[in-house]
Design a protein that fits this description.
Oligomer: single chain
Radius of gyration: 23 Å
Structural class: alpha+beta
Length: 206
């Protein structure tokens, strides 16, 4: 093989490599932050009051008249004081939003790089478990991504979110920014628990 042929072969190999790398950059399994169609915030609503995990603050919940409480240092559940100062880069669990005496959303909230009041802390995680005996008329006021939880079945979830994964009792999406966990009753196929979480950059070592 002469020099000219060698150069032509090298050019062809380099061109093939560039095309291969370009394809990998475009098809990364939906894990790219830039323009990833799966990295979408799906809102939760209670009586028409929207909660956007990773954006909605505790104060917003209070302003909308929601009954928010949390567990204090002595493990007592108390009504939140929005003026309470929180540490920066921290994650707090033990919060809840009361729906009825027997139904509560479990919430966690996080702070950013500066110390803030509890009212300004952002909701970082939200979870609701539902039981067969729960009041259906109450559940109808709660929606996940615009769909009342009483209408969200395992089959409908698969149709609505075809890129997620799971089995007959769960349908999941764990992205770079958001995690969605939908759980279904195996006998009825209807939703009985869901959780939404936004990945937070916090100091887990305290």
């Amino acid at each position: 093989m002469n020099t000219k042929q060698t150069r032509s072969l090298l050019c062809l190999i380099l061109a093939a490599l560039m095309l291969s790398l370009s394809a990998c950059g475009k098809d990364d399994g939906g894990n790219s932050r830039g323009g990833d169609k799966d990295e979408v915030l799906l809102p939760i609503s209670i009586n028409g009051k929207e909660i956007r995990v990773g954006e909605t603050t505790v104060q917003t919940l209070l302003d909308e008249g929601l009954d928010v409480s949390w567990v204090d240092g002595d493990y007592n559940r108390i009504t939140v004081d929005p003026a309470t100062q929180l540490e920066p880069n921290s994650y707090y669990t033990g919060g809840s939003i009361k729906v009825t005496d027997n139904m509560h959303f479990a919430i966690s909230f996080a702070t950013d790089e500066e110390e803030v009041s509890l009212g300004q802390a952002v909701i970082a995680r939200l979870e609701l478990s539902m039981a067969a005996e729960d009041d259906k008329s109450v559940l109808e006021t709660i929606s996940f991504d615009g769909v009342p939880v009483t209408e969200l079945t395992r089959e409908k979830a698969a149709e609505k979110y075809p890129d997620w994964t799971g089995n007959e009792v769960m349908w999941l999406h764990y992205g770079l920014e958001y995690k969605y966990d939908l759980n279904f009753d195996i006998s009825t196929g209807y939703l009985n628990r869901f959780a939404v979480e936004r990945t937070c950059d916090v100091d887990w070592n305290g």
